[in-house]
Design brief:
Layout lengths: L1 H21 L31 H27 L2 E2 L8 E2 L3 H7 L2 H33 L7 H5 L2 H4 L2 H11 L6 H8 L11 H29 L3 H9 L5 H11 L1 H17 L2 H6 L11 H11 L3 H32 L1
Antiparallel strand pairs: 1-2
Length: 336
């Protein structure tokens, strides 16, 4: 017992000695408070500003406010999708998930989902290809032609509805400029907005035109951050032109391509202005996307709660697609 007590006392003495030796100069008990330096052995280490939670505490009011402004409409819409009213003057009736059951059993919903898939993936492919093309072209612009980089923002300033009206005039089969150019060569121009197949092409092209500026700026910013040593090394190895872009530059742009993909997918999946002003879902419902179907159910059929069920499905689908894009992007980056 005596030896054990001696070991305990010796351990306590060594611990106090280590604490005294590791205490910085001016941090003693006799020093004034403004001369003392906080240490982990001192209670002053936990003063305001030293804790890792301090930035989050200061940001908490803003986080709560933004979450309330953005989250309340979403939660309220999801909650209202569980109700239904037969007429506008009738009281709300709780029906659970009946709106979702009716939605999934509707042929119009599956048709709009099919049209949305064509619309989204067509816009993704065309938008990514054109974004890369113009980003590489603007990256090589030098001298006084650099003002062209600023002009790429011009389509983004124009609203989707105004852009749709402009392209509706451009693709008009009777007096549209595009058909006039085609007829100049002795060929009759097609009915762009009256043909079900061509109407979807026009809608995709218009939607990409409105979203392309942000995609170009994202990819152009990524090109400017690429280390030139990689490009110089590829030139030494004999890679030029397309090979250098394919094997060096584009893999390094994977984060920017991922962000632009998420943006294009979100914009086309939730986009209504272009389809509504350009074709109105026609012809023969060839461009009846899910956003257009939601508008039809809400403002033409006056079934607002059923439309909220479609809006909730669009929200969930957008989240699932975003997670899928991020997973594919991370896997590609890991393989690289």
């Amino acid at each position: 017992m005596g030896a054990l007590s001696y070991c305990r006392n010796d351990f306590r003495a060594n611990r106090l000695t280590a604490a005294t030796e590791t205490r910085p100069k001016g941090a003693g008990r006799g020093a004034r408070w403004w001369q003392r330096k906080p240490t982990r052995l001192d209670s002053t280490y936990f003063v305001v500003g030293q804790s890792k939670a301090t930035p989050y505490l200061f940001s908490l009011p803003s986080i709560i406010l933004v979450s309330a402004v953005l989250g309340f409409p979403v939660l309220y819409g999801v909650w209202q999708s569980l109700f239904r009213r037969e007429t506008l003057a009738a009281p709300l009736e709780y029906i659970g998930f009946q709106n979702y059951a009716d939605m999934f059993s509707s042929d119009a919903f599956w048709h709009s989902l099919n049209r949305t898939a064509v619309f989204v993936f067509g816009s993704l492919i065309l938008g990514t290809v054109l974004g890369l093309f113009f980003a590489f072209a603007l990256f090589r612009v030098v001298g006084r032609l650099r003002f062209l980089r600023a002009l790429t923002v011009a389509p983004y300033i124009i609203s989707n509805v105004a852009a749709a009206v402009m392209f509706r005039i451009l693709f008009n089969s009777q007096f549209g400029m595009l058909n006039q150019v085609i007829e100049f060569f002795g060929v009759d121009g097609p009915s762009w907005l009256a043909d079900p197949g061509l109407a979807m092409v026009v809608v995709i092209f218009t939607q990409v035109w409105t979203d392309l500026p942000l995609t170009i700026l994202l990819l152009l910013g990524g090109l400017m951050t690429v280390d030139k040593s990689y490009l110089d090394a590829s030139l030494v190895d004999g890679a030029t032109g397309w090979k250098r872009a394919r094997h060096v530059t584009i893999p390094l742009l994977a984060p920017q391509i991922l962000i632009s993909t998420v943006w294009l997918s979100y914009s086309t999946l939730t986009g209504l202005g272009v389809v509504l002003a350009l074709t109105g879902g026609g012809p023969l419902k060839a461009t009846q996307t899910m956003a257009m179907e939601m508008y039809t159910v809400a403002f033409r059929n006056l079934e607002f709660n059923q439309a909220l069920a479609i809006a909730t499905f669009i929200l969930v689908l957008n989240a699932v697609l975003t997670v899928g894009y991020v997973a594919i992007g991370r896997r590609y980056e890991y393989e690289q």
